[in-house]
Amino acid sequence: MKKALVAVDGSEYSKYAVEYTSDLLDKEKWEVIIIHVIPTLEEFGIESVAPPSLVEQLFNELRENAKRIVEEAAKVFREKGFKVETLIKEGHVGKTIVETAEEIDADLIAMGTRGLSGIKALILGSVARYVTNHAHCPVLVVRKKEVKR
Ligand SMILES: Nc1ncnc2c1ncn2[C@@H]1O[C@H](COP(=O)(O)OP(=O)(O)OP(=O)(O)O)[C@@H](O)[C@H]1O
Ligand SMILES: [Mg+2]
Questions:
Q1: Does residue 5 register a pLDDT over 70?
Q2: Confidence (pTM)
């Protein structure tokens, strides 16, 4: 079986990428690994200002949220008959996706063009950009068809 690493952040762009990829791939040929990465403190840039208890609470919420995000995506693939696994990691988001793809020897990474911050002016979000620039395997970056640019 070939391996597709599907990166999700719970955004509508990410959900669209999940729908699209689950329609595109053949479940007889591909197994799916869903990944969500919780950014590190440095990426939030709050390490020196926020009290530890607040940081702890924030990360607990992010971990709970991460479970929901990966399960929701896993459900879409499972209902279409795919073999699915889920991963939740912490670290630099783009780097962690690329390193995980290498670790599991992925044949494809699938993701959306934009994500939660969804700044309309950006053609590609920073995670999509990082992964397309650094991945060792093909990357499917799914743009919504109706979004004209
Ligand atoms: N934390 C994450 N874990 C896993 N996949 C992610 C994560 N964040 C984004 N992605 C994937 O990358 C795609 C593009 O999102 P990206 O974060 O690059 O755009 P953005 O949120 O609009 O911009 P930015 O984060 O640079 O402000 C998403 O649709 C999703 O597939
Ligand atoms: Mg983002």
A1: yes
A2: 0.94
